[in-house]
Write a structure and sequence with these properties.
Alpha-Beta Plaits; Ubiquitin-like (UB roll); 3 domains; four-stranded antiparallel sheet
Length: 395
């Protein structure tokens, strides 16, 4: 699986991302055609080699007329709909702008449809976002990960006046990300850069993940700092894991020693409906020998706060422990197979050696078994046998 790792030495912005992609081998000619693909007139792109501290880096600058029309989300979507782009790049670009519109709407107490994008609706943001999506696709990237983000500090001027760093929309976009302030008094993460990573990143990591490194690109920021290299490094290669892909999950735990079991039976389904990846109750002996339960919930790190709140509100516990752990996962897909009982969904996992295995999904099995009056075990066995017998899985 092809992995792109954003090593955010000095935060991230749209132009730094483009510089990193060019440095990693995306042909400059493909970037130069983005304005034409978007049908943007009077727009040019300048690519140059610069030094930022001890780094030789690629600097990308979008040149456009100073006066730009005010754009809302519908205008952006219309430009993308008419653009000469692949469907995948168009949809990914649209997702980035939608994410940004949601954050701006939350900042201003409005709706995504009514948000006026200001600087972010300008030509450079269109080129940055579409170019980043096109560049990652051209390099064959399947998964995106990122390091901890230094946000900078101080204040920055915008159309609304002087605001603190990080900008309000940037802060909202980075919920769930690993961030820290510093190391310089400047805006190191722009709203465009935050929107790109918030949409594209599958996992936030502090160290570089295990990978067979193939390409390295260094994108330059606009400013130079005395003691800090203003660069973004993009590392591209094959993810190296003997068992599967690795990502970060949050684990929530609490001990329950005085709960009515009838109420606990309702808790796990509610946690799953609220976004938990997994949840379980384990019988345990508590202090003073009292019987109780140990509640364990696995979730995306961004959802841990909401799920902890649900646990605190729904049980008698006074605290929830939260920690982040690495989880190795097999790639999986869901497929439908035909059996004599009806169509059943199976979950198909791909192992490290490329082989695949399938297990019937219980909810699908139960629905089919109830409809035909057959035992669930027979339905599940027939579904897994049907999957193994398919011509595409022979040999």
């Amino acid at each position: 699986m092809k992995l792109a790792y954003f090593d955010c030495v000095s935060g991230v912005s749209g132009d730094m991302t483009l510089g990193g992609l060019i440095g990693a081998g995306w042909p400059e000619a493909e970037l130069q055609r983005i304005p034409q693909a978007l049908k943007l007139e009077g727009v040019s792109i300048e690519v140059s080699k610069v030094n930022r501290g001890s780094f030789a880096a690629t600097r990308v600058e979008v040149r456009a007329p100073e006066r730009q029309p005010h754009r809302h989300l519908r205008h952006i979507e219309a430009i993308l709909a008419a653009a000469d782009l692949t469907a995948a790049v168009r949809e990914r670009s649209r997702a980035v702008f939608a994410r940004l519109a949601q954050a701006e709407a939350e900042v201003h107490g409005s709706s995504p449809e009514k948000v006026h994008f200001h600087e972010v609706g300008a030509v450079d943001a269109l080129v940055d976002i579409v170019g980043a999506c096109a560049g990652l696709a051209a390099l064959g990237v399947d998964r995106v990960r990122a390091s901890e983000l230094p946000l900078g500090g101080g204040t920055v001027m915008c159309e609304h006046g002087r605001i603190p760093v990080p900008a309000p929309a940037t802060a909202l976009l980075l919920r769930g990300a690993r961030v820290r302030m510093g190391p310089v008094e400047a805006e190191l993460v722009t709203p465009t850069g935050a929107a790109l990573l918030a949409t594209l990143v599958d996992d936030w990591l502090a160290p570089v993940p295990g990978m067979r490194l193939e390409r390295v690109g260094t994108g330059a920021g606009a400013r130079e700092f005395a003691d800090h290299p203003n660069v973004l490094r993009l590392l591209v290669g094959e993810e190296a894991s003997s068992a599967g892909a690795t990502r970060t999950v949050a684990v929530l735990e609490t001990a329950l020693d005085d709960e009515n079991p009838q109420y606990l039976a309702d808790l796990v389904p509610r946690l799953l409906e609220a976004g938990a990846l997994d949840a379980m109750l384990v019988p345990a002996f508590m202090k003073k020998g009292r019987p109780g339960h140990w509640l364990v919930v696995v979730a995306e790190p961004a959802a841990s706060g909401q799920l902890a709140g649900l646990i605190l509100a729904s049980t008698s516990t006074l605290g929830v422990r939260i920690r982040e752990e690495r989880r190795i996962e097999l790639a999986r897909t869901f497929e439908r197979v035909a059996t004599e009982f009806g169509e059943v969904t199976v979950k198909v996992a791909t192992l490290a050696d490329g082989s695949r295995r399938a297990h019937a999904e219980y909810e699908s099995v139960r629905t089919v078994a109830q409809a035909c009056g057959s035992p669930p075990r027979e339905v599940a066995g027939a579904a897994e046998a049907a999957w193994r017998a398919r011509p595409t899985d022979i040999g």
